[in-house]
């Protein structure tokens, strides 16, 4: 496997980073998780824009332009002869000393990994996921905005560990007002009376690229869609529920905390959205 690392394509075994890199020492950096479908990168410009916003929010000056980042991302896929892949684009604060001071890190580190992806097992797309609500709250946007896709994922990892302790693969995280923010690595949607509802970013959700594709798909299909504050009660009485993410795509949820949602089976609107999403990823996108 060839990895892009700071201007060069190197073998996996040579893709090494300093122990003084602040991405490692402090989680000081930003990243994107991107998908390649049939030789097209899905919504690359949107991912690069979000990366630029994440970087700007932490006052990290990206060392490559949008065009250069786009080119190295495509080239990493080409170098590995990939047509379908998961791409991880990472920019860290770079090498510094043992203090926090980001201004003492002269050069950000940039790397791109393009690799195979393992989705949730197919049975969960067919039969739906059972998820739980975890006690760990999503971090308060006033402490660290969840709209920044930073290398600090410990809040989500604590949520993921709790999900597993309850026997679930994914979990709903509430914000500190008790409203649904998102899952540990996915956005949440419910269907209620024919309408699609999802929490706003202000509730502590990442502005997911898949989530924004769902807004376009809903419009195309003529399904009403809007952002709304959601509680667990809204999920209890929902007709359907599904999660979205670059890794998960669109996955039905049929149980929350052991309680069946709707009919207890993946619902018809979820199926329509999932099919439309799978069609869209094949035709939309940047040819590598
Ligand atoms: N919320 C969080 C906290 C995420 O990390 C999403 C929502 C969905 O956003 P996108 O833009 O992907 O629709 C994410 C995305 C992984 C992996 O390695 C994680 C994500 C995406 C792809 C792979 O587990 N998180």
Main traits of this protein?
8 helices, 288 residues, binds 3-[O-phosphonopyridoxyl]--amino-benzoic acid, 7-stranded antiparallel beta sheet, alpha+beta, D-amino Acid Aminotransferase, Chain A, domain 1, 9-stranded mixed beta sheet, 30% helix, D-amino Acid Aminotransferase, Chain A, domain 2
What does this molecule look like?
There is one protein chain. The protein is α+β, with helices and mostly antiparallel strands. The chain has two domains: 2-115, 2-Layer Sandwich (D-amino Acid Aminotransferase, Chain A, domain 1); 122-283, D-amino Acid Aminotransferase, Chain A, domain 2. The chain has helices at residues 22-26, 44-57, 66-79, 122-127, 154-165, 209-221, 232-236, 268-283, and strands at 2-5, 8-11, 29-37, 40-41, 85-92, 109-115, 129-133, 171-174, 180-183, 187-192, 195-198, 225-227, 240-245, 249-256, 259-260, 286-287. The strands form two sheets. Strands 7, 8, 9, 10, 11, 12, 13, 14 and 15 form a nine-stranded mixed beta sheet that branches. Strands 2-1-6-5-3-4-16 form a seven-stranded antiparallel beta sheet. Helix 6 crosses helix 8 (268-283). The longest helix is centred in the C-terminal third of the chain and has 16 residues, at 268-283. The chain is globular. It starts with a strand and ends with a strand. Bound molecules: 3-[O-phosphonopyridoxyl]--amino-benzoic acid (PXG).
